[in-house]
Amino acid sequence: MTLLEADVGLIEAYVALLSETRRASSTARALAAVRGLHRFCVDERGATVDPTEGVSTPRIPQAIPKALSEPEVELLLSAVIGEDPRARRDRAILETLYATGMRISELAGLRLGDLDTGRGLAVAYGKGSKERLVPIGRHAVWALEAWLGSSGRDAMAPARWARRVDAEAVFISTRGRRMSRQAVWQVVRTAAKKVKLEDRVSPHVLRHSCATHLLEHGADIRVVQELLGHATITTTQVYTKVSPELLRRVYEQAHPRALVTQAGRAAPGPAGRR
C-alpha cells in the first residue's frame, strides 16, 4: 500500500495499536505527525483525500499541578541565605515567584518601572503581551528592596550598561545583563537542590503553589484567575483539584445539609433520620 492509498481505517488501526503501549500524549503526537504528512500531500502533492480528517485525537487527561506544601515553600526560601548581591537577588527571585504566581518569562521581563514596592504592586506582561496588575506580599517586597538597594543590584551593575534593556531590568546577571528565563530557572534549581527538593521544584511549581495556597486560605477563584492572568476560569479551576480538604471545608460551610454536630456526626434530619 502506498501513502496515497491510506484510508481512515488504516489510520484508526495505527492509533489503536499505539494506544496499547503508549500514553495518550505520545499517541496524540504521533497522530499529529501523520496528520501533518497527509495535509502536506493534499496541499503539495495532489492528493485528493486526507484520511486523518475523520480520526479523533486521543483525549489527554488534564494533569493536576504538583504544588508544594507551605512548609516546603518555607524550606525552599530558607535555602538562600546571605547579604551579598547574588544572594539578595536569588532570594528576591524566589520570594517574588511565590508571592505573585508570575510565569518565569514574566519575572525575567520585569523592568524597574514595573515595580511599586511602596504600594506592593507590580505590572506583569503575560501571554499576548497582556498587561495585569499583581500585588506583592510584604516578604517579597522586603526581598526586592534589599536587592534593589546599594548592596544588591547597584553593587552588581556594570560601570557602563551595554544595552538599555539591561539597564531597565529588575534582575540582572553578574555580568550586568538582563537575566534570561534559563538563568532564573537555574536560580530556582540551585536553591531546590540545597534542600533536596530538586525533583519537586520548578518556577512553574511555585506558580502552582501560589494559586493553591491562595485558594486554601479562602481566596475567590475569580481573583486568583485575575492574579495569574488566566484567559478563562476553566484553567484556574484546575487548582481546586489539588486540595480536596479545601473542597470539603467549603462544602461543609456552604451547604445547608452538610452541618455537623460538635461530636462530629451528621446532624439528624426530620424525625431523627440520618
Strand count: 3
Side by side, the strands of the main sheet go 1-2-3
What's the shape? globular
Helix-residue proportion: 40-55%
% residues in beta strands: under 5%
What gyration radius follows from the Cα positions, in whole Å? 25 Å
Assigned CATH superfamily of the largest domain? Intergrase catalytic core
Helices, by number, come to: 13
As residue ranges, the low-confidence spans are: 269-274
**Name of the top-level CATH class of the largest domain:** Mainly Alpha
Q: Which class of secondary structure composition applies to the elements? A: mainly alpha
Distance between the termini: 67 Å
Order of helices and strands: HHHHHEEEHHHHHHHH
Q: How many domains make up the 3D coordinates? A: 2
- The average pLDDT value, as a whole number, equals 85
In short:
By secondary structure, the chain is mostly helical. It has 13 helices and three strands. Strand 2 and strand 3 (131-135) form a beta hairpin.
Description of the structure:
The protein is mostly helical and 274 residues long. The chain folds into 2 domains: 1-61, no CATH class; 70-242, Intergrase catalytic core (hpI Integrase, Chain A, Orthogonal Bundle). It is built from 13 helices and 3 strands. A 3-stranded antiparallel sheet has the order 1-2-3. Helix 1 packs antiparallel against helix 2 (24-44) and helix 4 packs across helix 10 (203-216).
